[in-house]
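Table S4 entry, Exocyst complex component Sec8.
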Amino acid sequence: MATTKGRKQGKAKDSSSKVLLQVINTLLSSDNAERRVIERERLQHELNEYDDKLNRQVEAHQDHLKSSIQTFTGISTRIEASLQKVKVLRENLLACKSLLHCKREELKKYWMDGLEYNEVLNLLDRIDQVKNVPEQIEKYKKKNITCMQQSFLCLQFLY
């Protein structure tokens, strides 16, 4: 069906071109002003006929045309809204990417701080154990364990 319309439009273009060439030739070949006036009136009459045909076609298909325009307007509005949403999403994603990059540096710093704090806690635990050595020595003396063993353990904690 689309090929039939294409052929009709092609034929209409050919016939309109032929008519236009015919009019031009008539006007060029005619030296008579009366002949030109007659050709002008004929063209005006044809133009009025085509104008009437066009108006009847528009009236006959007005509802369909109006519906098509409304549908197109609705689709166009939705596409525009979607494009706006995509733009906002893209901007938000770029902002998140930037924030995540900044957060990565902060997280790396916090991780390093955490490692340092863990080491400090381990050292504090060792210091507490060394502080308790005199009490432990006294306790082990009573149980006949040599003080050397406890001192040796203390040295191992320090290193």
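Residues 54 and 60 are 10 Å apart (CA to CA).
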